[in-house]
Write a structure and sequence with these properties.
Blueprint: E1 15-22, H1 27-38, E2 43-48, E3 53-58, H2 65-74, E4 78-82, H3 87-125, H4 134-148, H5 150-161, H6 167-187, H7 197-221, H8 223-231, E5 235-242, E6 245-252, E7 261-264, E8 273-278, E9 281-284, H9 286-289, E10 295-297, E11 302-303, E12 308-309, E13 314-320, H10 326-339, H11 346-374, H12 377-390, H13 394-413, E14 416-418, H14 421-428, E15 432-436, H15 437-441, E16 447-453, H16 458-476, H17 482-493, E17 502-507, E18 511-516, E19 519-524, H18 526-531, H19 537-544, E20 548-554, E21 557-565, H20 572-581, E22 585-589, H21 594-604, E23 608-610, H22 615-627, E24 632-636, H23 642-647, E25 650-654, H24 659-664, E26 667-669, H25 675-710, H26 716-735
Parallel strand pairs: 15-22, 15-24, 22-23, 24-25, 25-26
Antiparallel strand pairs: 1-3, 1-4, 2-3, 5-6, 5-7, 7-13, 8-11, 8-13, 9-10, 9-12, 14-26, 16-21, 17-18, 18-19, 19-20, 20-21
Helix pairs in contact: 3-4, 3-7, 4-6, 4-7, 5-6, 6-7, 6-12, 7-26, 8-13, 10-13, 11-12, 12-25, 12-26, 13-25, 13-26, 14-25, 16-17, 25-26
Length: about 750
């Protein structure tokens, strides 16, 4: 999106808006709206026929929401800005439209039924002539053609005025030809010629039925997103001060602001994101993370909107309200993914752009050829109408977006948030997955695993081990290093009373030096201690086992060493094995030393790893694998591994506890579990398989149906029924993705 501001050295940040579009009848309509919007300066638009939404990025100053709405209106469609505040109104409007469609269909069916019954009676009894007088047939068919079917004429008018064609053009043209021919025959009293009032009325009625069934099926594609939106309660129990007293009041969630104190009773849903102030309970966060096990909540821990409190009472401070809750962020991300286009859809878009002109040309050729060869204008007309009616660009337009909508919705329910359709398609083709060690394969929280005294005397070793741990923890109290926190935590867990250190000095890259009580304590790396001339034989054993080693010395004498490790996640080994079963090669990159890297890789079942790799070198390592022509993914925490995540074809962020992760990664995993990557790959493969099936059905339907109609092997009524059901079958096939479930591990 280039603007004039680029010429003076800066770029205006684009704004985004989502429009709810009304009046689209097929993929050609979506393509026309998209084309008109993209003609505007500073605008990038993508229109999704399945969700009836347009996702638009524009440069403020060059365009605004009002101009976007006016452009859609000029193209012959309706549009409103869609956001959290208007979602309920959109739903009511869609429901009202659906009810109106059903009422129109009921009227059309009542008028068409006698015509269809006549046809069936004549066929079954070999009766020649009309059972219902022709003028009565005309009176029954005309309201269906021009009142019920007015929407097709209006849609065709707007499409042709915009220089393109759509399904409305085909339906209006085909049914009008059948009705007009029948009307002329009736007016002129040509009794020997057959009339086709039943064909024109039945086609319109069946197309309306198809639209109703399609709308019901399409509603199912967004069911997961609607279910998420309904999870948040409408009221919150909030503390309000009245003098020295504190009242608990039920207030609308929309009125809460950050800092408000709210109470969540047992079994209630959390109204907004917050931090626990008082209380102990557990929370069911399955609706956000897909994890069925409840999460313990105590003071200082976060709670999220729409999660369910367990059997305790929690008093919380609001930290995220309105559109700033985790739930709102998930909904926005899923909506963005559902509105995006996958590269696989390009072929369908190209076909839809030329579909109507090509079909119209085939219909005209059919009319001319049959009339010339048989001299029977009526049969030529019927075959030509059948060509127009059987052709359906709707199925092509629905093939990709409906599968993406269901797939991304299922992912959101399982804690896998896919940013866009491109990421979904790339995840399906993933060949190499590069994983970070800390926080991805491991817990990301070091713990002290070994406390070894330097003395070889077993009788005194236990006492010396306790002494060295107490001295080390006392000296480390003021440090913020993760290893220091692990040492202090171990000492406190053993009930040790720690001393206040004095004269503490940090030696960069080596360790700490200070006084604890009357003792001069050195604490640091094995290499630093060796420089001092001190050796601890046990330290080499810990290094061989992949531990990070901290040596402790006091009064110029080594006391022993501590082994610190970041434990492997309980699920990591099974997840690595599962990824390999999916045909994905797993490679570990870490900044740790080779011994630690080898130990973790061996424990996780990973055969390929690189140690002592800087963040910049990780990006280069991904680049080398990409240059070999392989599709490479990266999984990390979404922040520290930013260079590597950016270099990957598709990036995965573990543990979506931050908005940063949700905004930077292609796929965000709500749980700290590498199995989420395998789930995302499995889901992407299932979704892309459905897309390919849908495209095959849509193409083969038209490839077979149009020639059969042109050869006179399809009655227009049968063609209309087949056309009506083609879109329904594609959407129904997409809905089968609701049966997808992650592999149990």
């Amino acid at each position: 999106m280039n603007t004039a501001s680029d010429n003076v050295g800066f770029e205006l940040p684009p704004a985004t808006v989502e429009l709810a579009i009304g009046g689209m009848s097929c993929a050609a309509c979506a393509a026309r709206i998209e084309k008109q919007l993209n003609k505007l300066a500073g605008v990038e638009a993508a229109v999704n026929f399945a969700s009836e939404k347009a996702h638009v990025r524009y440069v403020p100053g060059l365009c605004d929401a009002e101009r976007l709405l006016a452009t859609v209106l000029k193209a012959g469609f309706t549009a409103t800005v869609s956001d959290e505040a208007t979602r309920d109104e959109e739903k009511r409007r869609q429901l009202a439209g659906y009810r109106d469609e059903r009422r129109r269909f009921a009227i059309a069916a009542a008028l068409t039924l006698p015509l269809v019954a006549q046809m069936a009676f004549m066929f079954g009894n070999d009766v020649h002539g009309d059972v219902i007088p022709r003028w009565w047939q005309c009176l029954l068919a005309t309201p269906v053609q021009f009142w019920i079917g007015w929407r097709f004429y209006l849609g065709a008018y707007h499409a042709l005025r915009g220089g393109s064609g759509n399904m409305d053009v085909l339906v209006a043209l085909g049914t009008t030809m059948a009705w007009a021919y029948s009307f002329v025959v009736t007016v002129c009293g040509l009794d020997r010629q057959h009339v086709y009032f039943e064909a024109s009325a039945t086609v319109i009625t069946l197309v309306l039925l198809g639209k109703i069934l399609e709308a019901r099926a399409k509603a199912g594609t967004s069911a997961a997103l609607e279910a998420l939106a309904k999870l948040q309660p409408s009221t919150a129990r909030v503390e309000r001060r009245r003098g020295d007293a504190v009242d608990l009041l039920d207030v609308p969630v929309a009125t809460l602001i950050p800092g408000d104190i709210f109470v969540v009773r047992a079994g209630e849903a959390v109204p907004v994101d917050g931090e626990v102030i008082d209380g102990v309970s557990v929370a069911n966060e399955a609706m956000l993370t897909g994890e069925s096990l409840p999460v313990r909540k105590v003071a200082g821990q976060r709670v999220f909107a729409a999660t369910i409190n367990g059997d305790g009472l929690l008093r919380c401070r609001a930290t995220g309200v309105g559109r700033h809750t985790m739930l709102a962020g998930i909904i926005r991300l899923v909506e963005q993914a559902q509105g995006s286009k996958a590269p696989v859809q390009r072929l369908a878009d190209q076909v839809a752009a030329i579909f109507v002109p090509v079909v119209s040309a085939i219909a005209l050729s059919t009319l001319i050829a049959w009339w010339a060869l048989t001299g029977d204008f009526a049969s030529a007309l019927v075959n030509s109408v059948a060509v127009l009616v059987i052709a359906c660009p709707c199925a092509l337009g629905l093939a990709t977006p409906t599968a993406i909508m269901v797939g991304t919705g299922q992912g959101a329910r399982r804690g896998v948030l896919i940013r866009n359709a491109l990421a979904l398609e790339l995840a399906e083709r993933l060949e190499v997955l590069v994983v970070d060690k800390t926080g991805t394969l491991t817990e990301g929280r070091p713990v002290v695993t070994d406390v070894l005294a330097a003395s070889g005397d077993q009788a005194s070793a236990a006492g010396e081990a306790a002494t060295l741990l107490s001295l080390a923890a006392s000296l480390e109290q003021g440090s913020t290093h993760p290893l220091a926190a692990a040492i202090v935590e171990r000492a406190r867990a053993e009930g040790m009373a720690l001393s206040v250190p004095e004269n503490v000095a940090a030696i960069p890259g080596k360790g700490l030096l200070g006084d604890v009580g009357k003792r001069r304590v050195h604490l640091g790396s094995l290499a630093w201690m060796k420089d001092q001339g001190w050796s601890v034989p046990q330290a080499e054993q810990l290094v061989a086992r992949g531990r990070s080693v901290v040596v402790v010395a006091a009064d110029e004498r080594p006391l022993g060493c501590l082994g610190v490790a970041d434990p492997l996640r309980a699920t990591s080994r099974a997840a690595v094995a599962r990824l390999e079963r999916l045909g994905v090669e797993v490679v570990m990159l870490t900044g740790d030393n080779a011994g630690t890297a080898q130990a973790v890789a061996r424990e996780a079942g990973i055969t390929q790893f690189e140690a002592e790799v800087s963040p910049g070198d990780k990006a280069a390592a991904l680049g080398r694998r990409k240059s070999a022509g392989r599709v490479v993914g990266m999984v990390g925490d979404g922040i520290n591994d930013a260079p590597a995540l950016a270099a990957a074809d598709v990036s995965f962020a573990m543990g979506a506890g931050s908005d940063v992760a949700m905004q930077t990664a292609d796929v965000t995993l709500m749980r700290d579990d590498l199995n989420g990557v395998a789930d995302a790959i499995s889901l992407s493969r299932a979704t892309l398989a459905k897309i390919r099936q849908n495209l095959f059905f849509a193409f083969i339907y038209n490839v077979l149906g149009i020639p059969l109609a042109a050869l006179g092997l399809l009655n227009p009524v049968i063609a209309g029924a087949a056309m009506a059901m083609s879109s329904v079958s594609v959407v129904s096939n997409s809905l089968l993705l609701k049966n997808w479930k992650p592999e149990k591990t």
